[in-house]
Structure to design on (166 residues):
């Protein structure tokens, strides 16, 4: 899994989205979906995904998908179940494990990936999946933020290709 700590995330929408999510927390309680006010974060809206979580077993249904996420994915998956219509069980399993971990631990996860499973590996991106809860403890929604990052040019050395090219 291409997980990484938050301090390695460079995409401003992901960093800003995490800061916004943290601002919505009250003590140890997870933020509620209702606490998200689009007027507070207009620049983030294109990068947001809100998904509903049902269990058991954990099932993910995408309720809102921002326009930048649609453009990066090449598909609007609003209303779809996790990776509905995506070829390859490995990718479904990969994202299922990510969501299961966020739901189980009620903690954010961050990563860097590409859209290889959608034949778009030329589009690297960073992401955060942030738990939301109606009761403050049980995760029943997630706020996901995805933002494209620049890829190093082909003539860049191996060290530059492993990191984020700015």
């Amino acid at each position: 899994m291409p997980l990484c700590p938050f301090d390695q995330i460079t995409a401003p929408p992901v960093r800003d989205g995490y800061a916004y999510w943290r601002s919505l927390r009250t003590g140890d309680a997870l933020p509620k979906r209702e606490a998200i006010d689009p007027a507070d974060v207009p620049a983030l809206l294109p990068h947001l995904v809100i998904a509903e979580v049902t269990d058991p077993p954990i099932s993910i249904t995408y309720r809102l998908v921002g326009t930048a996420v649609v453009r990066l994915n090449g598909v609007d998956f609003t209303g779809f179940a996790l990776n509905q219509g995506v070829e390859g069980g490995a990718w479904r399993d990969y994202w299922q494990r990510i969501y299961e971990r966020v739901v189980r631990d009620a903690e954010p996860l961050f990563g860097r990936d590409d859209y290889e499973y959608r034949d778009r590996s030329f589009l690297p991106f960073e992401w955060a999946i942030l738990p939301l809860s109606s009761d403050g403890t049980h995760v029943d929604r997630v706020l996901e933020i995805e933002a494209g990052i620049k890829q190093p040019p082909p003539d860049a050395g191996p060290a530059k290709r492993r990191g984020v090219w700015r």
Summary: Helices lie at 12-24, 67-73, 89-105, 158-162.
